[in-house]
Design a protein that fits this description.
Ribosomal Protein S5, domain 2; alpha+beta; 8 helices; disordered N terminus; single chain; 8 strands; Double Stranded RNA Binding Domain; rRNA-binding; Small ribosomal subunit protein uS5; elongated; ribosomal protein
């Protein structure tokens, strides 16, 4: 009889064990339900991440939603010798433009190349300048720029000439939106000095429209053709 009682009680205990586990599972289910709500919270964090992305996209919105042309001109690696060995750093020179008459340059330093390029690009976007272009393809007049040991000469060119420039100067004109120009660099080949000399020459560019407004005259009079029909047509074609 004792054996029968034990045999009868064992299934009861076995049955009780799952029942006891069921409430724990239920509580666990409620506990997991909480994290399930947490999953919604994680979704909220993802949404917050989306807001962060929109925040990072803010600088792009400052540019009016325009797609900018970014040109990496030069990467320089430097090292510092310390007790444990060498520490390497990178310096990046970047040119940014919209291809429609606005261009800027900047440089950044960091331990990693991507971070240095990001810093240089951000600096270039902050220092963008507008340069007047003739017919949207070339410069209005010749110019010279000087910085340090670098001297550059810029000349306007007829349609079909192309960009006759090398190295850093080509990156500037491609970002600016110039299609026809002839340049010459004399002196140093340091990209930093060449870029600064080129921007100095571009800063001296003026359009007939700006000069006419400053002097209180008509554009046709400035062209030296006495207000002829050809001069008036050419003046009407000048937008900047």
């Amino acid at each position: 009889m004792a054996d029968e009682i034990n045999t009868t009680e064992a299934p009861v205990e076995a049955a009780a064990a799952p029942d006891a586990g069921a409430p724990r599972g239920g509580r666990g289910g409620r506990g997991r339900g909480g994290p399930g709500g947490g999953n919604n919270n994680r979704g909220g964090r993802d949404n917050r991440g989306g807001r962060d992305n929109r925040g990072r996209g803010g600088p792009g919105n400052d540019d009016g939603g325009e797609e900018l042309i970014e040109k990496l001109v030069h990467i320089n690696r430097v090292s510092k010798t310390v007790k444990g060995g060498k520490r390497f750093g990178f310096a990046a020179l970047v040119v940014v433009g919209d291809g429609k008459g606005r261009v800027g340059f900047g440089h950044g330093k960091a331990r990693e190349v991507p971070e240095a390029i990001s810093k240089a690009t951000a600096a270039a976007k902050k220092k963008m300048v507008r340069v007047p272009l003739r017919e949207g393809r070339t410069l209005h007049h010749d110019g010279q720029g000087h910085f340090g040991a670098g001297l550059v000469t810029l000349r306007s060119a007829p349609a079909g000439t192309g960009i006759i420039a090398g190295g850093p100067m080509r990156a500037v004109f491609e970002s600016l939106g110039v299609h026809d120009v002839v340049t010459k660099s004399v002196g140093t080949s340091n990209p930093y000095n060449m870029i600064r000399a080129t921007f100095e020459a571009l800063g001296d560019q003026t359009s007939p429209k700006a000069v006419a407004q400053r002097r209180g005259k008509k554009i046709a009079d400035l062209l030296g053709r006495g207000g002829s029909q050809a001069a008036e047509a050419e003046a009407a074609a000048i937008t900047e």
